[in-house]
Amino acid sequence: MSFTGSLKAVLTIAYKEFVHVWRDRRVLLLILVLPPFFTLVFGHAFEGTAVRDVVTMFHDADGSAESQKFADLLHGKDVLGALVEGSDNPEKVRKDINDLLQNLRDTFAWKPWTGDQKGPVNLIENGADAAVVIPKGWGQALLEGKPMAMRAVLDGSDTNTAPSVQAVLQQALGVFQLNERYELIKNLPGEVVDLGEQLTPATQHEFSSSLTPWEFDTEILYNPKLLFVDYVVPGMVGLILQLVTVTLIASTITREREVGTLSQLLVTPLRQSEIVIGKVLPYLFISMFLIAGTIAIGHLHFGIKIHEPLLLSVVCFLFLLCSLGLGLLISAFSKTQTQAIQFSVFLLLPIILLSGAFAPLSQLPISIRVFSELFPLTHFCRAFRSVNMYRADFGFISTDLLALAAGAVITCIGAAFLLRTAED
Amino acid sequence: MPKPLIVLNDLSKKFGHTAAVDKISMSIGEGEVFGFLGANGAGKTTTIRMLCGLAKPTGGSASIDGLDVWRDRFRIRSKFGYVSQRFSLYGDLTVRENLRFFAGAYRQNHVNDRVARMVKEMDLEPYRDTRAGKLSGGYKQLLSMACALIHEPALLFLDEPTAGLDPVHRQTIWDFLYQVTQSGTTIFVTTHYMDEAERCTDVGFVQHGRLVAKGSPRELKQGLGGDMLEVHVEPPMPAVLELRKFPGVAGVDLRSGRLRVHAADPHGLVEQWHRSWPFPGLKWLGYSWVEPDMEDVFNAYAQGHHLQNQNQGQVEAAVK
Questions:
Q1: Third-level CATH fold of A54-211
Q2: Which of A128, A217, B10, B13 could form a disulfide with B23, with the two C-beta atoms 3.0–4.6 Å apart?
Q3: Are A8 and B87 inside 8 Å of each other by CB?
């Protein structure tokens, strides 16, 4: 049989399948509306991971000038003038301080202390998420250079909030102490300064160096703005498309088996390969369109930048092909449409949880990660993020691409084979 | 005898321990209209599915035009058409789209011409853009046949094409089948309407997977050994039940108010009943001899087999 003959046969089936989808208006509406809609909803659901408005009780037991100043800082007031003045790069320090103040104002929603100020703190009873106490004698201890711990009570049941609050408190305290040191230097008596002039330049330098705080020049790689959305949206797009492709195509062969058209199809000279390819084509077309649409929403609405569109298209193409093959395999394997949907659900559940669409795969134990490698979504998420967030090239993601291609070929051949034998 | 087109040789199909088709051997000649008769579950559909290469025989073999139905199934697919038992077309596609699809699937050229011609031949013109799922039962069946014939095969399998149709549509379908045979197409049709069996050139009876009789309708009727006894008894309904219990009676059917009696020795029965009428609650009004029809043939084979089983049961009981 000629190639053009086969091509015509494939197109005959593809056209028919397309008409099925086109005429099933309810499903058509579903697959056109839900993926973009889900992308919007899920995107926003996972966007707001920054800790905000933590209800925090505050008590200043010290009542010194120092403690008042630190309390002002915690409440977002700028008390760090000395730090800016004393810096070599005042502009940068000013900006960092403003960021910190903004962060403090965002993080905390202060409320006055209620109830007992000593002894154990009951956060739940007081309707608070955290509590901060400046202990008596703290200001004096600071001046004398004797460290005195400040008291912070955090709700550890919220694994996200507690470390964030702790970090911001730590940062505020560190910056405050630096500022105090600058003020100290600024207010040194004239004699000390004169005395310093007499030192050798080398000693002078050493001395001032030990007084100048060493700052971390922190630079965040890969996801500089720490946008969770950049990480999550590709996973979500993949997840939605995984769901849509598998469930859509899973019913195509079983429907024909239930209605009886499969027998009719199998007595024609159509080959199994032609049937399989003809069935995959229209769904591939539709799902490529869908994935482009959902990624466009990620770009336009969530501001996710798309790098290397060509390479990403290859990733998407192979992922969809592999997913459709998987759905078709389920379809050829199931006896009824109900069975096909049940199989799909049971397969999709581990895919959702173990593919790394939301949580990094590295958090999973190695024995589970072996299973993860079996899912097309795992390879899609890794390849997509590698390219889009880490600027990886073709060589870097070739293993994932190869896995997706192999998955597509194996599942399609399996489906074709099952078509042939499934009749008895 | 025309040249054999389909040859079955001990063709068998077992599902577990149940033999759905049990060593059927027969041959069907070119150009014949072969009626495959039997009760539901007798093995008609399984036989057709094996002949179409949709089910693998578990024993024996069959060939179409010299090609094995299983081994060479991919080669013979373009040679026949198959209309399955249920309506098996795409309900969301229109009449013409269905035809076009099957024309494409059978790799035909000039698809549009073919479809247009078929629509015309089948009188489907007014419905050509109607979705197949919205057609009435008769038109659905016509469309199924049109799809199975779109590639002009030399052989057409039909699995109960008239089941559930009204007499008018049944007539239409048969008229069309005659039209198809004009061009020399062989037809293999299963049915359980006995009047349709009369229309076949050759008939095979299958029961519990076994072929119990095969021949032309005339041969089969003659095989019954003469005319049928028809008695006139009042009231007829209770009479059917009473007469069936009488020793020597194999079966009783009510036809137009008369009782048709199947028996090994009907003449003996009439003599016996003339001497003394054994049913005090029933009134004997006379009897006549009528020519058997296919339904009688079918009943004779069905009940004969049943009788045999009963005898076997009695023998087994006696042995114990």
A1: abc type-2 transporter like fold (3.40.1710)
A2: B10
A3: no
State pLDDT tens for residues B253-302: 888 889 998 888 888 888 888 888 888 888 888 899 998 888 888 887 77
pLDDT confidence of B315, banded at 50, 70, 90? very low
**B92/A19 touch (CB, cutoff 8 Å), yes or no:** yes
CA B291 to chain centre: 21
What are the boundaries of each domain within chain A? 3-47+225-421, 54-211
Residues in A closer than 8 angstroms to B102, CB to CB, are 264, 268
Longest Cα pair distance anywhere in chain B, in angstroms?
75
Give start and end residues of each alpha helix (H) in B167-293. Answer: 167-182, 194-197, 217-222, 236-245, 266-275
Kindly determine whether residue B54 and residue A263, on different chains, have CB atoms separated by under 8 Å: yes
| Whether B114 and B155 share a structural domain | yes
Q: How confident is the model at residue A65 (pLDDT cuts 50, 70, 90)?
A: confident
Domain closes at, from B189, B215, B241? B215
For chain A, the average pLDDT equals 83
**How many Å lie between the alpha carbon of B194 and the closest alpha carbon of chain A?**
26
pLDDT at A415 over 80: yes
> Stretch A144-149: mean pLDDT, rounded?
74
> CA torsion sign, A409 to A414 to A415 to A417?
positive
B182 and B52 together in one domain: yes
B50: closest CA among B89, B91, B9, B86?
Answer: B9
Q: What is the domain-level CATH number for residue B14?
A: 3.40.50.300
Cβ contact (<8 Å) for B56 and A260?
no
Q: Is the ipTM of this complex over 0.90?
A: no
Domain edge (last residue) among B174, B191, B215: B215
- Could you report the per-residue pLDDT of A272-282, keeping only the tens digit for each? 899 999 999 99
B238 and B195 within one domain? no
- Which range has the top average pLDDT, A137-141, A183-187, B236-240? B236-240
How many structural domains are present in chain B? 2
Residues B273 and B210 in one domain: no
Which of chain A's residues have a Cβ under 8 Å away from the Cβ of B87? 260
Question: Which of A16, A24, A424 is facing B56, going by the closest CB pair?
Answer: A424
Residue B56: list chain A partners with CB under 8 A.
Answer: 424
For testing contact with chain B, the best of A253, A264, A424 (most B CBs within 10 A): A264
Burial zone of A155 (CB within 10 Å; 0-12 exposed, 13-18 middle, 19+ buried): middle
